[in-house]
Specification:
Largest sheet: 7 strands, mixed
Strand order of the largest sheet: 3-2-1-4-5-7-6
Strand content: 15-25%
Order of helices and strands: HHEHEHEEHEHEE
Shape: globular
Structural class: alpha/beta
Number of strands: 7
Helix content: 25-40%
Radius of gyration: 15 Å
Length: 193
């Protein structure tokens, strides 16, 4: 299965982004709205069009970094939010990153990865977080595709990946998902062990 940079560039160039809501996801926006410290260093991996980064940045959070394998996705974001600092756009494989963050926002990156990388994802997110760091966001809680992203799964499966690295503070069906994702998303807030 080809999930290379060229695969993702093609998807963005051809607007083949069915997972894209076109706006910040309400469960994540609700989480952002209760954050008080705008100096927090926040990473959004596999960010794509990253309406979440745009929302944070426009609300005073200046230490937001987005990372994506697709240069097209990053260019699209920069064109949409030209005042976003170029230094905070990371054209990289997230698994190659070394710096650390206070919060990592999960929004469709996990489901875009080859499922055989899920354990490695949990371990990498742990390593990218500062002490007391948090992994927050959404995971699909239903079977989706098996031959291409987005790849689905279940809470029972995910526990095995995350429990060795995180305290599972919140891990429940999202109460405020968009209608098309109602009862199929888990809201997570995991605390680094």
């Amino acid at each position: 299965m080809d999930l290379s940079e060229s695969f993702w560039d093609w998807r963005y160039q051809n607007q083949d982004t069915g997972w894209d809501l076109g706006e910040v996801s309400l469960p994540i926006k609700t989480y952002f709205d209760q954050l008080k410290d705008s100096s927090l260093k926040i990473l959004i991996p596999g960010a794509g069009n990253s309406y979440e980064a745009e929302y944070l940045f426009l609300n005073g959070f200046k230490n937001v970094c987005i990372a994506d394998l697709s240069k097209t996705a990053l260019d699209n974001f920069k064109n949409r939010v030209p005042s976003f600092p170029s230094a905070n756009l990371r054209h990289t494989n997230v698994f190659d990153m070394k710096e650390t963050f206070d919060i990592i926002i999960e929004q469709t990156f996990f489901c875009a990865l080859n499922p055989n990388l899920r354990e490695a994802y949990a371990k990498k997110m742990h390593s990218l977080l500062n002490p007391n760091g948090k992994l927050v966001g959404l995971l699909f809680d239903k079977p989706l595709f098996t031959e291409r992203p987005p790849f689905g799964g279940s809470k029972a499966e995910y526990i095995n990946y995350f429990k060795p690295y995180f305290e599972l503070d919140i891990f429940e069906t999202s109460y405020n998902s968009v209608a098309s994702r109602e009862d199929s998303e888990l809201f997570i807030k995991f605390l680094k062990k």
